[in-house]
Design a protein that fits this description.
Shape: flat
Largest sheet: 6 strands, mixed
Strand content: over 45%
Number of domains: 2
CATH class of the largest domain: Mainly Beta
Number of helices: 0
Structural class: mainly beta
CATH topology of the largest domain: Immunoglobulin-like
Helix content: under 10%
Number of strands: 21
Length: 352
């Protein structure tokens, strides 16, 4: 057998929830093959895993106390996609795959609740097609090829995505704390897509004795993982918060620094522009994995503001005539859930 491979009809191998994954299995052989069946499987799941070491102690049989280290596995999975097709099988056990190029097409329907593909430090969301050729009296031949899922998240359907955001920060100095540095930051909206520019407007009022020399902004990705302790749950495929461990990863996705000069007793405006990198996983939430984004703005050493962002795939329309009032002041986590309808169990969403 010279060739045994999977070929997707979509050369980019990128799909949206609800689309069909179509392709073919290609077997090129110079002579006929004895085989029982050809099985094509599609698989997609979210999986978190890490290991934690715990120090424990106990008495031995002689009554002496000793300590030892024990590793504890934390593991959680949620299955989003699982399908099987058999495009060919031997009817009576004597059929053979003829020599030459043999093509076996396959079609699978993606469910509407598929979260985006993701790779992280403690977990992942992966999709793939796996093919196995069952051969009698020989090792089975198999191959696998991954594909990506990217949901179409229209920011125009999320009311908070169009809202401007304003935050304030203040620092007091001096012997009596009567010298003040104030910062007001605003961002024109909350929703952005990969490749879009994030304009940041800063108004700084300096009544301290020291000048401010630097302004900085960062786009930060926060990933929250949760997993249950191994063998602690009767139904491990059903995630629950009991016996759960949590981990959070913080990654700077984009950054800009700008030299400024804000002297004592002056009021200065500073403008920064962050570029959302491409590609970038959109914001989403599932029971064991959350991906959120914030913009952090700093002036000098101690003035800092943070804004929560929504990363989608369809940009906010420029035809909005009435801008809602600011829905966010300061730094807080928004618990509101997306109003997008979910059709299947265990959906992902943009908000918790």
């Amino acid at each position: 057998m010279e060739t045994f491979e999977i070929e997707y009809d979509n050369p980019t191998r990128v799909y949206a929830p609800g689309e069909r994954v179509t392709g073919k299995v290609i077997i090129r052989n110079s002579h006929s093959l004895n085989a029982l069946s050809l099985k094509v499987c599609i698989h997609g799941e979210a999986h978190n895993f890490w290991r934690k070491f715990e120090n424990k102690g106990k008495f031995d049989k002689n009554g002496r106390w000793y300590t030892f280290s024990e590793h504890i596995n934390y593991d959680s999975r949620i299955m989003y996609l699982n399908g099987v097709a058999k495009p060919w099988s031997s009817l009576d056990g004597t059929n053979k795959i003829p020599c030459g190029v043999n093509i076996f097409p396959f079609v699978f329907q993606l469910p509407l609740n598929c979260p985006p593909s993701f790779e992280g430090s403690h977990g992942s969301i992966r999709y793939s097609v796996h093919v196995e050729l069952d051969r009698p009296w020989r090792f089975n031949a198999d191959t696998k090829k991954v594909f990506s899922v990217i949901p179409c998240t229209d920011l125009n359907t999320i009311p908070k995505a169009v809202n401007p955001m304003i935050a304030h920060a203040c620092k007091h100095s001096g012997f009596l704390g009567n010298r003040e540095v104030k910062m007001k930051v605003n961002i024109p909206k909350r929703g952005f897509i990969a490749g879009e520019l994030i304009p940041i407007h800063i108004q700084i009022t300096n009544h301290s004795k020291k000048p401010i020399n630097e302004a900085k902004a960062q786009l930060i990705q926060h990933v929250h993982y949760s997993a249950q302790r191994a063998h602690s749950h009767l139904f491990p495929q059903e995630h629950c918060e009991k016996h759960c461990e949590h981990k959070t990863a913080r990654t700077v996705m984009a950054e800009i620094e700008k030299s400024v000069r804000v002297e004592c007793c002056t009021d200065v405006r500073v403008d920064l522009v962050l570029v959302v990198p491409q590609p970038l996983t959109p914001s989403f939430h599932i029971p064991i994995l959350d991906v959120d984004y914030v913009v952090s703005v700093e002036m000098g050493e101690k003035l800092k503001c943070e804004f929560p962002l929504i990363i989608g795939s369809v940009p906010v329309s420029q035809m909005v005539s009435i801008v809602p009032p600011p829905a966010f002041v300061g730094s807080s986590r928004d618990p509101e859930k997306s109003h997008l309808g979910q059709l299947l169990t265990l959906p992902y969403s943009l908000f918790r």
